[in-house]
Fold:
Amino acid sequence: MATAKAILKAPSSKPLTKRKAWAALKANHKTVGAVHLRKLFADDPKRGTKFTAEALGIYLDYSKNRITEKTLKLLLDLAKESGLRERIDAMFRGDKINITENRAVLHVALRAPKSETILVDGKNVVPDVHAVLDKMSGFCNRIRSGEWKGHTGKRIKNVVNIGIGGSDLGPVMAYEALKHYSQRDMNFRFVSNVDGTDFAEAVVDLDATETLFIVSSKTFTTLETMTNAHTARDWALKGLGGDEKSIAKHFVAVSTNAAEVSKFGIDTANMFGFWDWVGGRYSMDSAIGLSSMVAIGPENFRAMLNGFHEMDEHFRTAPFERNLPVLLGLLAVWYTDFFGSQTVAVLPYEQYLKRFPAYLQQLTMESNGKHVTLDGKTVNYETGPIYWGEPGTNGQHSFYQLIHQGTRLIPCDFIAFGKTLNVLGAHHDILVANVCAQTEALAFGKTEKQVKAEGTADWLVPHRVFDGNRPSNTLLLETLTPESLGKLIALYEHSVFTQGTVWNIDSFDQWGVELGKVLAQRIVPELGSKTEPKLEHDSSTNALIRRYRKLKEA
Ligand code: G6Q
Structure:
């Protein structure tokens, strides 16, 4: 088992800006950065099929990127010099590559087939993963079939997941993405915010006798989740006639912390476990996905896991030049570090993926929003870009203006499917026509000559010119299924890994989040205190606290 020290000695220990490929890429950017995509396409009629890669039913067209074959080769060299191969092997082997928390990073074990062996501290974790999956399946089948009854004998019709961050964003995204496959006579709600409105609105039309709460929290100490869980407990008890025994039929927990689960009053027989080697933002395919499994059923959930696993295997074994996550990750590095791009827009042309960008925000930014290397040195290059987005075509009528004609370079990932799950006249052709039209317009723009030829008045011409040369990837899949969703998520997970490896940062810790978890705890009693509290913050914070106390009393 490699130690943190050994990991630091991997090829990536050479500072990024001192790697050979880095210098070569800098030089390459000087020439390629000045060339228009129009020219790159005109010079090579095969470009549109050459810069593509296909695996597991996902077609990646990355030809509309500002790269040449040389750039691609250098990016692949950079991956090699950064020790990407060694890091991938280390992750899959169960090495403790999350060095600041001294943990293995094994979300890949969550979707490993029963026959595999993955060791953490000498113990094979795969049987434990499957034991939990089996327990989840049994539970979900009982809920879905109506065999599991609430305290008053009614079947469960409503499932409310209470969790935040990694214990919410994955489940809610997966539920929305796979709604087509969900049990339609049940309601699924997700409560995350400590703002009481979130809970109040989630249960406003629910009957406690038909409602099950899944309290999802790795630590079972997160302020928001525990506050919401206690509020849910009070709400349920009220609706169930105050009998404490009713809790057992209406509350289950997903956590790694059995002691806290018990303290809350949930029988640990109704607890679904996972492990410290599953990071929050990588946990939607662990027991944290219990609400997803109730919604879509165990078979569909397992199909999703298969999709994840296939992409894991692709990432682990495919040569880098055909490796989808590696290509996607390296392109993000190219724009972030050489073009100075600050963001990446993710634009799914699939309404069911409406929460996908929000999910990706956490995956990408919590992972790679780091400013020190694995050995604690401040980086002298940019790391994690800002990921954001909205489904198409809605975004076209709002922020695309800036992508087309603003002053910033925003690389975009367009995601589309060949088949729709809801065939309605020409809707799907119109939807996909917009994907093609947008990527075309971004790349090629509209020249002054073209605008003038349309008879545009001279003074208006500059406003109507589109420079183009704005890069995009297009990901084309066949149909949105549990399996293809699994592949898509794993694709981004491993793209994040690729980026983090090049940057030599710990993509698996989140000290910024931990800080947030403690900061508010000090102020809560100051806001609630009946007597004037002694405030020892800065003058701005003190004044805000005093003003809030006045406002709430007014
Ligand atoms: C994820 C983060 C964070 C975490 C939440 C919830 O990687 O660590 O988003 O998932 O803070 O934490 P709990 O599951 O412990 O409540």
Summary: The chain is about 45% helix and 10% strand.
